[in-house]
Amino acid sequence: MATIESDTVAVVWKVLVAEGDAVEDGDTVMILESMKMEIPVEAEESGTVSKVHVEVGASVAEGDPLVTLG
Amino acid sequence: MSFTWESALEELKRRRARARELGGERRVQRAHDQGRFTIRERIERSTSWFSEVGELAAYEDVDATGKVLGTLPASYVCGLGEFDGRTVAIGGEDFTVRGGAPQTYLARMKGGLGGFVEDLAHDYRIPLILFLEGIGGDVAAQAEKGYAYLVSSLSMMRPFELMSEVPVLGMVSGASAGGTAGRTVVTHFSVMTKDSVMFAGGPPLVKRALGIDVDKDELGGARLHTSVSGGVDNLAEDEDDALEQMRTVLGYLPQNVWELPARGDRSDPADRIVEELLKIIPENRRQPYKVDRMIKAIVDAESFFEVGPKWGRSVTTGFARMDGIPVGIVASNPRYLGGAIDAKAAEKQIRFVDTCSTFHLPIVYFVDVPGFMVGTEAEKASTLRWGMRAVQSLIFAEVPVITVHVRKAFGMAVNATSNPDGLGLRIAWPSGEWGDLPVEGGVEAGFRREIEAADDPAEYRRLVEERMLAMADPFRTAEHFGVEHMIDPRETRAVVCRFLNASMHKLVTTLGPPQRQWRPGP
Fold it and tell me: Which residue of chain B comes nearest to A36, CA vs CA?
């Protein structure tokens, strides 16, 4: 179980994975919008998405969980 | 008994052997069990030769009631050594002897915290390598002295003086607390192994003072210090990794401020065209790029070493070489806070710029900054004061600064990227955009009343934005010599290398201590 956390204050702009999806290390799983930039969130290991913690439009703070890989 | 060579040399041999036993087998075993080396092993593993000073320093080990149990070697091991082919002053606390507590009752404290090893680095003008593992002062020292002493009786001048004389590099493996932790942050580069801790006071002290139960990693673990506090620059996997990082950093630095750093090999062609830059920097301005990829493409192959990669992340800092010349690289990192300078990023930039200035490394700054960070948290952190100190440190830098404008450059933060009172060489890519404020938000702020009063506010705003955007065209700035040079990004390496080579003529005339003293913070 690895949870990818937001490393910045941002708004969720695009969610690119759903529960059950297989992701590879380095895949972009979500795009956040912060300071008018589209910040890609990448998986740091391979696995299957067991939970997507946020929806498009949600505000996230540093350390907030985004996606958990099972 | 009269003197005989035989008995005197026998006694010397016995005492030397005793020093090598450190705090005893049990304590040495404990360090090994926890995956750490002893101070003697650290020095042995990191040097090709070591000439110890004060090997025989020892003291009587007494229990809490004053009963003498035997003798123990002094809690600090130091001397002269060869570290990666360089002569250095090297030393560290011995954690197996009273947790490495400083022995203020020994003459000159023997070493550490302003002791002999720091005098050696100062007097011979050689780098200082410190292994920092100790608990700081302990109550037992009071018993040795027979009175409670004021800590302010110890001179702290030397550690600060050394910051403007010779490279000072520190490694934390194990626990660095109190005075040892304080010493850790007064270095040009520090590195901490991932299972180490550092704090002003450990969990028992926190419990007594604040009534809070806190785990030592949560209180001052390596991840916290290398990613949140920035008290230590870099994280290391283990001691081997930490040593390798220290060797790498020392490789960019001279023996002292009176010498130039050694030039590296020049096998990577200075005029190499960097084709991949057009791929690394997306055409969509809302998409960030990996700043380390951009830097690595431009500097000499395999020469970039990032300092503080996990803290103050909106500014990337690191050493590199260009045509063999050691340089300091500073770059906005658009993947974090869009590259906005927050208090931590400013602190990191100040620390790095000061180090480069001290050791005569020219600075190459890649700018993509939307401004100082805004928001409640940013105001609470006093982003303004730290940001303006970053401006000051760059203006005061006594080395050539070459600025490359990649994309955005807005607001006061841009003053922290080049120095108009120096040569102020700013090289722009056609992707550059700059001004007091970005046009989008700036039009709303600057013409609010006019926009509100218009018959069709939306259309009026559009017209104003259109006019302002036309003026924001970077080519217009280049026409007015408002930026010194505009180039194809692919030529960046070639152009920067030419100016760097030319600047060496000036650098050799500015050797010596900085005109202003180094300061670890405002």
Answer: B286
Ramachandran category for residue B394: left, alpha or beta (phi over 0 → left; psi -120 to 50 → alpha): alpha
Closest-CA residue to B104 (of B67, B68, B136): B136
Nearest-CA neighbor of B364 among B390, B315, B406, B331? B331
Joined together, the tokens standing for residue B58 give: 């020892």
> Rounded to a whole number, what is the distance in Å from the CA of A42 to chain B's nearest CA?
12
Residues forming a β-bridge with B202: none
B318-342 CB burial, b ≥16 within 10 A, e <16: bbbbbbbbbbbbbbbbbbbbbbbbb
Nearest CA in chain B to A6: B336
**Residue B517 reports pLDDT greater than 70:** no
Tell me the nearest-neighbour CA distance from A56 into chain B, angstroms.
Answer: 18
Chain B contact set for A14 (CB, 8 A): none
Residue of B nearest to A35 (CA): B338
Strands B86-93 vs B76-83: parallel, antiparallel or unpaired: antiparallel
Give the lowest-confidence range in B134-148, B239-253, B265-279, B455-469: B134-148
In 3-state terms, what secondary structure has residue A65? strand
Asked if A37 lies within 8 A of B334 by C-beta distance, the reply is yes
Work out the number of other CB atoms within 10 angstroms of the CB of residue B446: 15
Least CB-CB distance to B338: which of A7, A34, A40? A34
* Six token digits for residue B201: 């006071």
As given in the structure block, the two tokens for residue B504 are 């060496």
Q: What does the pLDDT read at residue B521?
A: 47
- Asked if this assembly's ipTM is beyond 0.95, the reply is no
